[in-house]
Amino acid sequence: MIKTTLSYFQNQTAARGALLPTGPLFPTGPVQIGCGKGSAYTSFALALLSLMSVLAIVFPNYLTIAELREAYGPWLSVIRGMLQGGMMGGAGLALFAISRGKQIWIAASALALITVAQVLGGADAKVGELTPAPFSVGVDWVVIGLLSVGAVFMAIEKLAPVRKDQPILRDKWVLDMKYFFVYHLALGAFLIGTNTVLNTFVSWMQIDSVALAVSTMHPLLQFFAIMLIVDLTQYAIHRTYHSTSFLWRIHAVHHSSEHLDWLSSSRLHILETLPLRLFLLVPVFVLGFDPAVVNIYVVFASFQATLLHANLKLELGWFEHLFVVVRHHHWHHSNDARAHNTNYAAHFPWIDRIFGTFYEAKGWPTEYGVSEKIPSTVLGQAAYPFTPVPNRQG
Ligand SMILES: [Zn+2]
Ligand SMILES: [Zn+2]
Fold first, then answer.
1. How confident is the model over 47-93, as pLDDT tens digits?
2. Same structural domain for residues 317 and 212?
3. Residue 267 CA: which ligand is closest?
């Protein structure tokens, strides 16, 4: 069951902390790629990823997720090759940026990070010993998330953006990146917590004959059944978050994004993330679906949750009546009063039709976010539900 929840947390996660530098070193506002600064920022990203990777190799006990470790073995030479390429590319881009006099401090910081990574062994770093550790954080999971979801979506969002003028490093991207980092780092704790709760408090609900019947159904049928069960559960929880004053304040943090893209899917209050992850898994766990199918589903769901927020103008005609693609959820985030409290479904838009909360996604919203003022820091947003706020729901 641990593995079945593994990818569940890849999509969106949240909490607190300030792991990225801010202020003069790192831009908190929009940065237009192509203005000459791109190589400096790219070099910093590559340097940071490289250093995190080397640290994870040297200190796997504390910096990798136990459930992921066994998968790395066959890929170690590929990982080392990518690491070498990342470090060389990062250094090259940093030197280029410095030679052009662009964002010198960021480029110099990138070189410093790459130097530290090299001192620790670089691409040839010795794999640290694995002994029982009291805790671990998912540095490896952050790297995997940024390289897979981040890099892929940054590329496809540029192909067909909803908002052409929205840069990759748009306003509040640092805030959302903090959420991304903290939730990915906390994956190990999430897994342990979720599995402990499911095994301790929920397993008694399992009925062997039902589990046997469910787990032996055709895998495709199981997959769609999981989609339907999770979406119905998600619909109920999501709608409750919108219709209950205190829960809305929690959920409003997610809705406070004024720029939707792959990274905005990370902005979630911890009091939404934890119960959602847990309650969505309960019926799947109790019914006893084949763990292999559940794993495939959670990978799919992680990808789709990111896709729903992407700055991607994906229009698929009749298909959008059957499956939630992008527009359905973009309208859910719209600050247009007509679309408030609609389109809760994450997989099947007809669930919204059945329950009377469907808003037909014609065209694209022009404004996202909420009218109420939400703090713009992770800690401020964590505290927001507990502070007096206006009554508006949206
Ligand atoms: Zn919502
Ligand atoms: Zn959303």
1. 999 999 999 999 999 999 888 888 888 889 999 999 999 999 999 99
2. yes
3. 2
Cα–Cα nearest to 336, from 316, 353, 359: 359
Calculate mean pLDDT across residues 153-173: 92
Residue 26 within any structural domain of the chain: yes
**Domain membership flag for residue 391:** no
Q: Supply the pTM of this predicted model.
A: 0.84
Query: Any idea what DSSP says for residue 17?
Result: -
**pLDDT tens column, 270-288:** 999 998 888 998 999 999 9
Cα 239 to middle of ligand 1, angstroms: 7
Which ligand minimizes its atom distance to the CA of 251?
Answer: 1
Distance, CA 321 to ligand 2 centroid (Å)? Answer: 19
If asked whether residues 341 and 270 sit together in one domain, one would say: yes
- Does residue 222 fall inside a structural domain? yes
* C-alpha separations of 350 from 232, 297, 360 in Å: 11, 20, 11
**Same domain for 232 and 116:** no
> How many whole angstroms separate alpha carbon 362 and alpha carbon 340?
15
Domain that holds residue 151: 3-187
